């Protein structure tokens, strides 16, 4: 309950709850015990008459939340009243402000979370308890300001006894005593405070308390202040009085090339004052320090008591600051460093919190590695703000104090471009005179700039290093810089500059120096993955490590921003980070064996592709006897749409995986195409997919097995048909047909002839198409393959209808539909329904056409048959247009256009644009 109260209306994970209950050492039954406690809590409330108990303690996906009106939590009411008091004070109404503070303080019943002794709860309780004396200080100050020193002197005596190290309370007590005519008592109070600070903390009173003591000794009349009847303002001490040290001003100068980050700057300003700690987290080189420094200079007027800055070097394995040194630096900055070096750390923390309780300080801790660096420096209240930068997400900090975070990613494309173009413009270099060395003619400045931006991918450090190189060498053009990076073959060599030890390689090395041996190996092996997005299951297979261990390791890399989230199931790695991982992998190749890791990765893709093929086209089982598949860590696909959804998420990795397979093992590349063939026929091919498939086809001579070569030509031919490269498709499908028939494979030959027939149809050669479909139908029946029989009946019907033999075509469609329904061939039934709809469309029987087209559309969407879905949407548009409703027809054409676009079908997309334009849409 206490942990939920710390984060009301927020899902608190099971991990955070067990951390709070067992101080990070939970028993094996921790999760079950948490569930039991939540149940007991609900039952207790129900027994007490709280009927909505189940609505208050809610069970989330991975934890619990306390859903409650904040006005029912005393702490939040207290903070609200304190904030309202501050507003009244700023508005010049100190009496009303003091009244609100007394109302807030009346809510206090004792120490926060008394009786709960776990570290997490007590750590928060300590910070919450500090808010009470801070409120008392402000209340007493306001009441002294309104002349009520006679009333508050007794309360101040009690408060000083309760909080002996809070110098502001001591000063207020001394002022109240002096105003009530008790000068000697005020001076004695000072001496007692001085002795106490010396004995307990080894320090002298702060400069403000010393100055007050001096003024009382001088009987300064300005200290008398107002009476309750006359509300005169209390005079401030003369400017320059005393020997107070200057306020610290340690923020480094702003980055002269700082660009953009408008949203992040606004978030920092918005969150300032809302939480005890602001955390700016992001990968190495993302400009966290530059952002915070820029923001600190913009808001320095909000922190008149000073700005403290300390680089903790938390991501350096050998030179990071200790928690004690952090506190020592802050105390020295405030001229409060104890002369006695043996003062215990907890008393230093108490001194620090007392010193900043009534100040407005900005404290920046740069490059924090762990929360141990941060916790001692958390201010307890008042107007001070702690800001932390880290490559680590510092998630554990949320269990201890109030935190607001800013996750810093890369710069936008426009912001990145401005850094490079600004430098190239300032350097006077230009590529307008012609091609640079190593840059082919026709590749101008714009293309070279795009290559640089792609490589940097928004990383400010990388962009600024390139910009600095151009500024240093005024003859260096964008084109030459891009060509040099491509020519060198070691991209990271180009991201350093003479005279500066900070390079992309060095900051990544510092980050990786903190990794465990297992996590470092995992990081290196990620360089083997050919794509930019990777899932834990793939990495587990590649690394030959159990999935739970991989998830933990990836979580550690994610916390350090060496990888980033890329959707629900994937992580991504910046190109330059992957280059660094590849360098480390090369250095450890003997131990890590990257070739074996790639072999395991390709086996994983083969396993999941075979699983998908098993539900998309179970009749295509040429590799069924290949033995045990690699453990994929992926559940079996229950339906065809499940397989399609999975590979839709994985699709951008498929082309790189196929290209890697072609280089590594051409036979397995062909097997991968075979299993992926049905998925791509239903969803379409991108240009990258086609490049990978054509590259595999270009290597057909390396395939020795004739049947395997037939599978390759068949798969490539089908892809070329879908992408409307019909002459090339026909050539591939002829080769496949000859090889299949030569190997006595009627099912394979039937499939290739169906592809040939479809290509002929698209060319308008309907008689040739029908001949191929008839041959395919006979071969399919010989092979006993019902799926291919249904397919041949459908395709031959399309050819018959194109030749105006409507009755024969309709007869074949009905026969095909009956077989499809009988054997559960849902996506084939969908295609047949669309063909029947097209038949009625030709006959201008629009109602019957629409009935069949809509019925087919439902089945297509259930089976993920997007290529046929696009054609069916277009046919519905034509039927609606024929019915006289042009406006609605345009809407259907737009839907078809969107699906064609998703399928990377530029021909279909262009045709829909033409129809929309012709219809006036």
What kind of sheet is the major sheet?
A: 5 strands, parallel
Instruction: Measure the end-to-end span.
Output: 60 Å
Weakly predicted, low-confidence segments: 228-242, 426-443
Strands of the biggest beta sheet: in what spatial order? 5-6-7-4-8
Quaternary structure annotation:
single chain
Approximately what portion of the residues adopt beta-strand conformation?
A: under 5%
Count of strand segments: 11
Q: Structural class of the secondary structure composition?
A: mainly alpha
Cα shape: elongated
As a percent range, the share of helical residues equals 55-70%
**Number of helical segments with 4 or more residues:** 41
Estimated radius of gyration: 37 Å
Residue-averaged pLDDT: 86
Please, could you describe this protein's structure?
The chain is mainly α. 61% of the residues lie in helices and 5% in strands. It is built from 41 helices and eleven strands. The strands form three sheets. It has a five-stranded parallel β-sheet with strand order 5-6-7-4-8, with helices on both faces. It is elongated. The two termini are 60 Å apart. Residues 228-242 and 426-443 have low confidence and may be disordered.
